[in-house]
Amino acid sequence: RIIHALRLEQMPLSFTRNDLGDSNFSGCEVADIKNGDIKTALEKATRIGFDFIACSLDGDDAFYRRNRRRRRRSGEASRSSSEEDDGDFIQRPCDFQLTAESWSSRVVAVSAFGCPGDYYEHFKGGKNKKHGTCENMCRKLEEDLSYASHLNLHAVIIRTYRPRFDDDVRSAFETFDEAVSSREENDIEKVRGDMNSFREHALMKCARVVNAHFEDSMVNSTRVWLEFDSVDDDSYEIWQKFRAACHGHENLGICIRNAGVYEPVLEKSSAANHLNGLDFEGARRDKERDVANVTGLLGKMCAYEMVPRDDASWDYSKWFAEPVKCVCVDTFCFTPNKHAYPVLPKRMQEFLSECFKRDIQVILASGDEYVKNPNVDKDTPLEDIQFHESTRGTHTTQSSLEWSTDYHPMKEYFRYIAHLFENVPPLSEQEVIERDYRDKVQAPLQPLADNLESATYEVFEKDDSKYDAYEDAIELALLDIKDTVSDIIRVAVVGAGRGPLVKATINAAVKASVSNRLKVYVVEKNPNAVHTLRHRAQSENWAAVNAEIFHSDGRIWEAPEKCDVLVSELLGSFGDNELSPECLDGAQRCLKPETGISIPQEYTSYLAPMTGAAVHQACSSTVSRDLDLKAKETPHVVKLYRHHLLDEAREVFTFKHPRRISSKEKTGKAYSRNERHAVITFTLKDKCATLHGFAGYFDALLYKSSRAKKSVNCSIHLPTHTRNKDTNELMFSWFPIFFPIDVPIDMRSKDPQFPNEIILRVWRCVSSSAVWYEWQCECGGQSTRVFNAKGRSSKVGLY
User: Fold this and answer.
1) Which of 164, 206, 563, 718 is positioned for an S-S bond with 490, CB 3.0–4.6 A?
2) Enzyme catalytic residues
């Protein structure tokens, strides 16, 4: 993040909120820095309360360059011969202004590539000059990235704007005029499509430059964030192609401006003159002059007013699955409330709250000239501001630091953002624990091959919702059989761990009024956990329920007597991925043949296609191709956070216990009974999406009582996810499982009548020594290879 190593100088949005990570630090975009004086600009911003600034490293701003040309033509200004000879020289700020730590943590560079002003500046010569001027833009971007790397800046924001009809090339204006005059909707859409195609073409050249920057900066940590002012399908498609061109590099991110829903609205008289075919260049110059007087920043915004689009979509689930690093909010998004304080619309507040929860930092921006000086208020004339800026060098260093921020206009905007941050609902204790696991991949447990550590047991035992569900299920089962079993009710707890299921069994027996008839067999293969069980049996008086502890593998354990109930928690994130079917098939020998009950009775696995760049990146390895192949062919357990499901989860495999084995199955291979194969078809909800892999879940039926007409489930499947009875928080014992694909697949559907489909084939393969999964999918006109063939990269050992 931008702020990562600051201590005494930190100025967070809140000193009391430490649960929202780096989103506690905000920035201020400085539109124009006089003479490259970044130090002064940073001091002003930090005195208001900001932690960093975003600014251009190019001192030769396009707007002021045009003004100089205009003044030369009118005789108002002249340039020396040295300036004439070196007209393309770019003024860079001196790196002596700040320390290396301040450069890397306090400054983010902004490089324009395709801003509205730049479209006109670089492409106004017509089609014959587009190629050459685009190359100039690429060269300028290369220089910006190179200097940012030299300063070791944390990030460079590449500003890209969706083309507007009022600020693109002259031919587009003329074509649009004709389309509006004829009122042909098809013509207007054609021009819009041409502009977007041109923007895409330019940004692909930009991607080439960025990719070269990443390739040449193996040690350098300067990130590149692509800014979007719209979050429609066209922008997402450009992002897909841009990311693919950069090989999905981990230092590539996204910046969203103004929630991506604002668009410019021109002054009616100006628009009318434009459409009536008046002098184009004259109208352009008048507009530039007027806007300059209002904003002082033509290259940033070419409109009198910005309003939310009528067709604006406030659904960011797909974008939040991408690496969104920051959001920029212009002051025009604010409106005054009844007390004349700036506030944001309700939906924008909700958008920023979601950003704060996701470690996304906020940058406030304003085109107003007075924002650059904290010693003036909003009523100060522009001439006074310019005079103050021009004479600030005559003051001493001490007096320059005595600026008053009491009436600084950006202060109220900052206070409002801090207010929104403070009002984000605090994270629960569970969410704080899970925070460190978000999008961090873990290899599934090997419960038969390895012995779990005490810390792992402790994490599982903190989940009250799971053991409450088990307790309810055991109680239902005991109530169903207590009248049919005339003597002792025997319960076997297989895979007891450190004993939480034993405690749940005893509590259920007390509720069912059968504790005086209960006999519990406690079976655990981990010798270290057996010591804990024995200590617990002594301290909690398990002898009262005749508990016996056995150090044995449940599959080969011989029960002293046949049991009425078999209880286990051998489920994995995918239901069967920790070999619950194999374990319970062996352990069911301890049950009474006809009346024995297994808890769980049944469980079903589910898969859903998803986009999640962070998780997919975590599944990659840059050490070697072999390790990368293994990582991409391993199902990983992960707390999915920045992800987006492309369709609802579908059923995959179902297992039932106790398994009634037929005579035909008994004659075949013992390990072939649990092999499975499924073919699943998904239909994409989005017209434009990226497939990174498949998210896996399970839903287990612990017990269904025919007597009470009631059932108890234990589930991480989203529609039926088990919740805590007291806190209503989701059960967290199991995180979802992620089946990756090696190369992300971009899918786009131009025709809503023919949506994209994904066909997934999954195999559960079983041998005499291991179990593994294989998967293969077809989508977007592409077919992947079969992943993890013959379990070459990932398998779960049976011994």
Assistant:
1) 563
2) 569, 578
